[in-house]
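Quick review question:
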């Protein structure tokens, strides 16, 4: 694998992280931080948060977007 290919992969990965960061910021701004299906377990000073509903929503949106962009 050449350095040019590795560089392109790193830039592509960084752009994907940037897009995901913007998506999470927008979701928080619109109040979609606690969806039905999100689990919060609190016991004493320990809190475990499992955003299952949010991950399902993001998975559906990304599936639709990727199928539109990579359609053959």
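Suggested answer, residue by residue:
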């Amino acid at each position: 694998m050449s350095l040019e290919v590795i560089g392109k992969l790193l830039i592509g990965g960084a752009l994907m992280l940037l897009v995901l960061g913007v998506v999470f910021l927008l979701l928080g701004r619109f109040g979609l931080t606690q969806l039905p299906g999100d689990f919060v377990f609190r016991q004493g000073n320990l809190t475990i948060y499992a955003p299952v509903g949010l991950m399902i929503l993001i998975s559906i949106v990304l599936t639709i977007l990727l199928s539109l962009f990579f359609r053959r």
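Why it works: Strands lie at 39-43, 46-50. The mean pLDDT is 86.
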